[in-house]
Amino acid sequence: MTRRFTGWHMAAILIGFFGVVIAVNFVMATSAVRTFGGAVVDNSYVASQRFNGWLGEARAQEALGWRLEAQGAESGALVVRLSGEGGPIEGAVVTVEAEHPLGRLPGRSFALGALGAGRYSARHALAPGRWRMRIAVRAQGHDARFLKEVRL
Fold this sequence. Notes:
By secondary structure, the chain is α+β, with helices and mostly antiparallel strands. 33% of the residues lie in helices and 36% in strands. The protein has helices spanning 7-35, 44-64, and strands spanning 67-72, 78-84, 87-88, 93-99, 108-116, 119-121, 130-139, 142-151. Strands 1, 2, 3, 4, 5, 6, 7 and 8 form an eight-stranded antiparallel sheet that branches. The chain is elongated, with a radius of gyration of 25 Å. The mean pLDDT is 89.
């Protein structure tokens, strides 16, 4: 014997369906808010107007052939190795803006000192953890910018 499909059955199906949709949306929104580190750009319109210029700068930097490796020393200080097609790059001015990806620790800006052979190091240690480093290099009349994730 089959039971009749009633309005109560339809109500249960609708409530179950929308309950699942709302629960998934809640979980996804919570996850997005907890993992997003902040604004990518302050003003998207202004960023869109500068986009082609940024692409040109990226092409010019790519043409230089510079490579940058960043890692933490045992002391917790940041060490950067800068090289080009002709070998290590000496005499560069290297500045760093370090920020914690989730904003749990305050960001810091500092310059790196030369160690020789294309190596540059911070004079002080950063707190242990994962850091997003925006590294600006000025050498040989050229500018380059690198974004590196470093675990100290």
